[in-house]
Amino acid sequence: MTDRHAQGMAVRRSVLGDDHVDRAEAKRTEFDSAFQDLITESAWGTVWASDAISRRERSMLTIALLAATGNFEEIAMHVRATARTGASPQDIAEALQHVAIYAGVPRANHALKIARETFAEMKEQP
């Protein structure tokens, strides 16, 4: 394990939570192992580990970019992460307004639906 991998895993756990990361690691196979290392080192150990902007800002950017590119599968995961990054529901709503203007209303609308449902689920959980 490289230092970047260890740092990435620590950041990943800090942002997504131990339960999420433990579930993801339990599903890891030989087939996707290299890919998992790549995202742990690159996304988490390089991009998310940088202190150039806050984790709150990274959450807002990540959710906006996922919505803008139509990659809706990971939006709920990143909305749940806002409990750890400090991005508020209002922050996410503001970011998705930018998506509506610059990437399209349908994508922003779908992302808002996912975010709204995820925030509601988060309120129901202890």
UniProtKB/TrEMBL annotation:
Residues of the Carboxymuconolactone decarboxylase-like domain: 34-117
Protein name: Carboxymuconolactone decarboxylase family protein
GO molecular function per UniProt: peroxiredoxin activity
Organism: Palleronia marisminoris
Superkingdom of the source species: Bacteria
NCBIfam families (alphabetical): decarb_PcaC
Pfam families: CMD
InterPro entries found in the cross-reference section: 4CMD/NDH-1_regulator (IPR052512), AhpD-like (IPR029032), CMD-like (IPR003779), Decarb_PcaC (IPR012788)
Signal peptide: none
